[in-house]
Specification:
Elements: H1 5-27, E1 40-41, E2 52-53, H2 54-71, H3 74-91, E3 102-103, E4 109-111, E5 114-115, H4 116-133, H5 136-152, E6 164-165, E7 186-187, H6 188-204, H7 208-225, E8 236-237, E9 248-249, H8 250-267, H9 270-291, E10 301-303, E11 306-309, E12 312-313, H10 314-331, H11 334-351, E13 362-363, E14 374-376, H12 383-397
Antiparallel strand pairs: 1-14, 2-3, 3-4, 5-6, 7-8, 9-10, 10-11, 12-13
Helix pairs in contact: 1-12, 2-3, 2-4, 2-12, 4-5, 4-6, 6-7, 6-8, 7-8, 8-9, 8-10, 9-10, 10-11, 10-12
């Protein structure tokens, strides 16, 4: 496969349509409560009482809107519409604006805080739904959310965005995204996905204010979030951008490398784009040198002492395919293309669940499935693997799916 783009492209299309998208269409629809199941284990056991996350539902919306936009296949539009209607009906806070972090199985608000990461994914999803369908209401929702984040989450003093606020947009001490995350005021992860959401919105809403904010976000990422010394992301900060973590997340590094270039491309600032491309190459190089195992898989995390998590979660593998291929497109250096091919081969060998469909959450270093049984969950969604396929279909076929 390493020499044949057409075969690789065919494999990716097959994986996207016959495994990833078909799994979500066949197994995740909640016919009792509406929307989508909040939790399904890897043996396809549904937890009917599981809560439903904003992340899962906005990512389903983004993925199927994007699938419809790219392929024109009507069944994908049906799923996107289902997700759009569910998010509007159950996650949207009619009183204070924005969207709840979690609802219960029946769709009632369960965690009402306004996690900025979640709002960013709603902007990403609503703007994509507009791109796919021309639905003006979805565009207006994305624009309104942009204004809401700028009003409440933007740090006027030090720039950037605070992690979380209460339901009515007041300060909160509860900032962390998940049990794994530090309870700090600012994070790489939230800024990365605000940038991603703003980038997608700017494709369809070329406002001067959004242009200025997206430009500033790219500059903040380069100035504060990427470590100039080693080209890795710094993961957590206080509000003044003092570093609060020494961990390295290889998946985020390689994902961020291509999202940064995409943001600068969409923005259309040539000076910033040249800077973003140079940094993206450095990030890809660091990830390739330090984070890739002998089998082509990408490790999860390292610290100052070296590797600290040698499991290989599904999403870093997906991002590695795109990130390394992006570096190849920027440099013409075959080592990056080979790294992308090997990432895909690792996915085909170990990450794709050949028994139950979709992808395993992760595998251990020896290639056996990890202890995590989640197939569908608040964080296990079709977005990383679906998006990797969309991106690679565009890049390998020479069509610009993203722009």
């Amino acid at each position: 496969m390493s020499g044949n783009n057409q075969q690789w492209l065919a494999n990716i299309k097959q994986e996207l349509e016959s495994n990833i998208l078909s799994f979500w269409m066949e197994h995740t629809l909640d016919e009792k409560n509406g929307g989508f199941h909040g939790f399904i284990s890897r043996d396809l056991t549904v937890n009917q009482s599981a809560g439903k996350s904003l992340v899962l539902n906005t990512r389903i919306l983004w993925t199927f809107a994007s699938a419809y936009r790219i392929t024109g296949n009507e069944p994908y539009l049906k799923i996107a519409e289902r997700a759009y209607q569910y998010v509007n009906k159950h996650f949207t806070d009619q009183q204070y604006g924005g969207l709840y972090w979690m609802v219960d199985a029946a769709g009632k608000p369960a965690e009402t805080k306004k996690q900025v990461y979640g709002q960013a994914f709603a902007i990403y999803a609503f703007s994509e739904y507009y791109r796919a369908t021309g639905n003006e209401a979805a565009l207006q929702q994305a624009v309104e959310l942009f204004h809401t984040l700028e009003r409440y989450s933007y740090d006027q003093e030090y720039k950037g965005y605070f992690e979380a606020l209460t339901r009515d947009w007041q300060e909160t001490g509860d900032n962390s995204l998940s049990e794994k995350d530090l309870n700090e005021k600012k994070s790489m992860n939230t800024h990365l996905h605000v940038m991603e959401g703003y980038t997608n919105l700017y494709r369809v809403w070329k406002s001067d204010e959004l242009h200025a904010k997206l430009k500033e976000l790219i500059e903040i990422t380069i100035k504060h979030i990427i470590n100039e010394d080693n080209a890795h992301f710094i993961l957590f900060f206080d509000e003044q951008w003092n570093r609060k973590s020494e961990h390295i997340s290889y998946g985020h590094d390689i994902e961020g490398s291509w999202l940064l270039v995409e943001a600068a491309e969409v923005l259309g600032d040539e000076t910033l784009l040249a800077l973003a491309k140079a940094i993206a190459i450095r990030m890809a190089e660091a990830t390739l040198n330090e984070g890739v195992d002998g089998d082509g898989g990408l490790f999860n995390e390292a610290g100052p002492e070296g590797l600290i998590d040698t499991d290989k979660d599904w999403w870093p593998q997906a991002e590695a395919v795109v990130g390394f291929y992006n570096a190849y497109q920027l440099t013409g250096d075959e080592k990056y293309r080979e790294a992308a091919v090997r990432s895909w081969q690792f996915i085909e060998s170990f990450i794709i669940d050949k028994e139950h469909g979709e992808w395993h959450w992760s595998v251990k270093r020896d290639g056996s499935p990890s202890d995590n049984i989640e197939k569908v969950s608040p964080w296990k969604c079709p977005y990383h693997n679906g998006r990797a396929c969309f991106e690679m279909i565009g890049r390998l076929s020479g069509a610009a799916t993203s722009h």
